[in-house]
Amino acid sequence: MISKKMIDPIRPTDDEARALARDLLTGARYAALGVLEPGTGAPMVTRIAIGTDASSRPATLISSLSQHTAALQANPACSVLIGEPGDKGDPLTHPRLTLQCRARLVARGAPEHAELRDRWLEQHPKAKLYIDFGDFGFAILEVSRGFLNGGFGKAYVLAPRDLGMPAKG
Q: Which parts of the chain have pLDDT scores under 70?
């Protein structure tokens, strides 16, 4: 019998991986958000608009009418997938970033709301049409860990500091 030694597929996180992950995060305008459905606990994934706050943390503008907002209110644990496939080649060879997070909903009257609103409109100018509707609010996604797939054979585990943001808590 031939013994096969398991090789850890995770590479040491280096500056190139950090830069790629930061570029994916700051360049993203949409992402897939994974939440747990209240009541059933079943996983649910939805597409959201995404941006960053002044501390480089992911942020999203969400409606209280959406299922994912209700899910985040019931359980703030979530994950986000960022990265779009390129125009050519196998979509799985293009870089993508998965973030494990806890959503912190920001009340409309909270001190940081106005700053988030201004920054959001810089990143998403078309949101001016609905950003002030009563059912819309912000969620800051406090990242606990990230996983970068930089392409075939390029896997990394990232801490919040690797993404240029403060550590959670």
A: 1-6, 168-169
Nearest residue to 96 (alpha-carbon basis) of 146, 33, 162: 146
**Residue 23: what pLDDT?**
96
Asked whether the beta carbons of 71 and 48 are under 8 A apart, the reply is: no
C-alpha to C-alpha distance for 139 and 161, rounded to whole angstroms: 20
Coil, strand or helix at 47: strand
Kindly list the distances between the CA atom of residue 97 and the CA atoms of 13, 40, 44, 67, 108, in Å, as whole numbers in the listed order.
Answer: 13, 27, 18, 23, 29
Which residues, other chains included, contact 30 with Cβ-Cβ below 8 Å and sequence gap of 6+? 47, 48, 49, 50, 84
Q: In the chain, count H helices and then E strands.
A: 3, 8
Residue 120 and residue 131 in contact, taking contact as beta carbons nearer than 8 Å: yes
Q: What is the pLDDT of residue 34?
A: 98
CA distances from 47 to 11, 62, 68, 78, 168 (A): 29, 11, 10, 13, 24
